[in-house]
Design a protein that fits this description.
A hairpin with a 3-residue loop joins strand 6 and strand 7. The radius of gyration is 15 Å and the shape is globular. The chain has 156 residues and is of the alpha/beta class. Bound molecules: NADP nicotinamide-adenine-dinucleotide phosphate. NADP nicotinamide-adenine-dinucleotide phosphate binds next to strand 1, helix 2 and helix 4.
Length: 156
Amino acid sequence: MIGFQGQLPWHSKKELTHFKKTTLGFPVIMGRKTWESIQTELQGRINIVISKSYKKSPHENVKLFHSIKESIEFCERELLKKCFIIGGSEIFKQTINFADEMIISRMKNEYPGDVFFPVIDFSNWEDTSQIDFEDFIVHTYIRKEKLNEKVFEADN
Ligand SMILES: NC(=O)c1ccc[n+]([C@@H]2O[C@H](COP(=O)([O-])OP(=O)(O)OC[C@H]3O[C@@H](n4cnc5c(N)ncnc54)[C@H](OP(=O)(O)O)[C@@H]3O)[C@@H](O)[C@H]2O)c1
C-alpha cells in the first residue's frame, strides 16, 4: 500500500529526508494525482508531471508531458543518466517493466491504504541492500537480467 485518500498514509520525516537524498539532482517523474498531492516543486530536481488532462504545466518549474514515453525520451535527449519514477500507483504499474532498479521503503507499522504498489515477481530482482531506519527499511532491488531495449513499451 502506498497511498490513502490522495496522500501518503504515513508521516515520516526520516523517510522524506531519505527520499530527498536519493533523488536530489535527478529528474523525478510523477503522475498528475501525485503532483496534486504535493503541489509544490521538489527542489533540486527536474520535476516532470504526466497527464492527459492538463493542457499546460501546473507550475513554472514543472515539465508537463502527455505520455510516459515522451518524458523518458526527454530525459534521454537531455543525456540525463538516470531518472526516478516516484509514483503513484498508475505510473508505477506502467513503468516497472522497464526499471533497472527499485528503491523501496517498507514501513514497519501498518496504515490504512487505498492505492497499492503493483504486484511484482521478486524472483526477477535481487535485494542488494537493506538499510534499517527506526520506522522503515530501505531495500534496493536490482533487476537480475538486463533489459532488452525493446522492452520499453510505456503507455501501450
Ligand atoms: N508511497 C509512495 O511512495 C507514493 C509515491 C507517489 C504517490 N503516492 C500516493 O499515490 C496516490 C496517487 O497515485 P495514483 O495511482 O492514484 O495516481 P498517479 O499515478 O499519481 O496519477 C495518475 C494520473 O496520471 C496520469 N497518467 C497516468 N498514466 C498516464 C499515461 N500513460 N499517459 C498520460 N497520463 C497518465 C493521469 O492524469 P490525467 O487524469 O490528468 O490524465 C492519471 O489520472 C496518492 O495517494 C499519493 O499520495 C505514494
